[in-house]
Amino acid sequence: MEIEVAGYNDKMLVLLEKVIIQMRDLKILPDRFKIIKEKNLRAYRNWIFQQPYHQVLEYVRYMNSQTMWLNEEVLAELECLTAADVKAFFHKILGQTHIEALIHGNLYKEVGLLSLGGWKRG
Fold this sequence. Notes:
By secondary structure, the protein is mainly alpha-helical.
């Protein structure tokens, strides 16, 4: 999982804090989940209608990667995915999260990233 924020340094920390708090306190709305799931299902089903060179590039990436799944594999799992599955997985993955930060630009050490969103150093 990768989070990238960019912009003016005086508001970047505020934005990052809001993103992290939203992640920590994830609320999955059933109606919204259904819409996003249908949109993704449609995109995965329509993948086969792309230009052949797009498909070939996807297979090349698959052959060169150790942790990638083919479109058909993702589609099969996505069809039976529920909001409860996402919520359970999200809490499980957050419990195993290790945070590394690369900060480029102006950041004052007095601000301290560890205080963001109420997350504690683990």
